[in-house]
Write a structure and sequence with these properties.
Blueprint lengths: L16 E5 L14 E5 H8 L3 E9 L12 E2 L7 E2 L3 E4 L4 E4 L3 E12 L5 E10 L3 E2 L4 E6 L7 E11 L5 E7 L8 E2 L15 E8 L1
Length: 207
């Protein structure tokens, strides 16, 4: 094979091809032996142009009180069922089901509240299939300086769904070792803007 510098310089077209190593498949799984493959510039462009698009958003504008115990409760984000091409939400259980394969971003937003002077702890986890924890537990502790104050919790995670029908639930715990705490909405005075929900779930997909 001639040295690369001996080949002429050309302007690439989308139908032109390059050679590369196929290290993982479309679902992120390793490919055995890393075979050499051809790629068109058009396919490379499609890959680079991918970005996250919102597929679903649901929120709860009512208080969520987990109770002071070590059991915790599943979070109910919205009162209405939602079904889109990629995800479905069941309001009665707070379950999110992924209907199509792909890479997703899950954003959970919470606003915690406690009686002034109380130091509370709230813990959050995500369960797959009703039993298997996905990702780490998120824990927040804060000293409330006013009963009207809110403590924002933002949990963002990225997941690759390789089985259609995979479903998640999102749990919150107010452990028995702490003071009473809850998730509370925030009313915006004078109807200046929309009220802030106690819990919101936003699902985006890489497309």
């Amino acid at each position: 094979m001639a040295t690369i510098s001996s080949y002429p310089i050309s302007i690439p077209q989308l139908a032109d091809k390059i050679i590369g190593t196929n290290a993982v498949d479309a679902y992120g799984n390793p490919v055995v032996n890393n075979p050499t493959s051809q790629y068109t510039f058009s396919s490379v462009k499609t890959l680079i142009d991918q970005h996250y698009i919102q597929r679903m958003s649901t929120s709860n504008e009512s208080p969520i009180v987990p109770g002071i115990d070590n059991t915790g409760i599943p979070v109910i984000f919205g009162a209405a069922d939602i079904t889109t091409l990629d995800v479905a939400y069941v309001a009665s259980t707070g379950t999110i089901t992924f209907r199509t394969l792909g890479s997703y971003c899950i954003q959970q937003l919470y606003y915690a509240q406690a009686t002034s002077g109380n130091n509370i702890q709230l813990n959050f986890k995500t369960l797959q299939g009703g039993s298997t924890q996905i990702g780490p537990t998120t824990s927040t502790s804060f000293l409330s300086n006013a009963s009207t104050a809110r403590h924002r919790i933002d949990i963002t995670s990225y997941v690759d769904i390789d089985i259609e029908g995979t479903y998640y639930n999102f749990w919150v715990q107010n452990p028995s070792t702490g003071a009473p705490g809850s998730l509370q909405p925030q009313t915006i005075p004078g109807a200046w803007g929309t009220d802030v929900p106690s819990a919101q779930l936003i699902i985006t997909k890489l497309v």
